[in-house]
Amino acid sequence: MTTLATASLLSLILLRTLAGVGVAAAEADRDRVLPELSQFGWWFSSEQLDNEWVLDQALRVLELGAPLDPDFVVMPRLADIAAEHPRKAVLVLRDLVDLEQDRWRLHAEREHIQRILGSARESDDPVAQAAAEEVVNRLAARGVETPS
């Protein structure tokens, strides 16, 4: 293994460790750590990290009440991996919709939202399909239209 490959591997291991520590700290001291955890969106957007791992971490961060910022890098990445992991992707989307205060940001991401919903609806996973319909209803309640 080259020095560069070794350094990259060690960086990924450190990143995963720090993410786990950050989530654990947030669980202990929510108000202080949530703004920092929101920046997980930058990590989420990295194509160097395992898709399932970033989805799992995103769900943990969102469960704590921290949005994933910046949304302009999160939503395209979420749409890109939705076909591979439709259930987790639509659950992340559901939590993002719930935490988003500005419905206009949701309007701006409609193309990505539609791709995520389409992946969930087209999957063989009834949980993903039901979650997609739940997201459509939540968006409609907020005045955000999604094509059927």
Give a quick set of tags describing it.
mainly alpha; 148 residues; single chain
Topology:
Elements: H1 3-28, H2 30-38, H3 40-44, H4 51-63, H5 71-81, H6 86-99, H7 103-108, H8 110-122, H9 126-141
What does the model show?
- It contains 9 helices and no strands.
- It is mainly alpha-helical.
- The protein has one domain.
- Helix 1 packs antiparallel against helix 2, helix 6 runs antiparallel to helix 8 and helix 6 packs parallel to helix 9.
- The relative contact order is 0.10.
Percent of residues in helices comes to over 70%
Compute the number of helices: 9
- Can you give the mean pLDDT? 84
Main sheet properties? none
Derived from helix and strand composition plus strand pairing, the structural class reads mainly alpha
Which percent range describes the beta-strand content? under 5%
Radius of gyration over C-alpha positions, nearest whole angstrom: 16 Å
The poorly predicted ranges are 1-14
Kindly report the oligomeric state of this protein.
single chain
Per DSSP E runs of 2 or more residues, the count of β-strands stands at: 0
Please give the alpha-carbon distance between the first and last residues: 50 Å
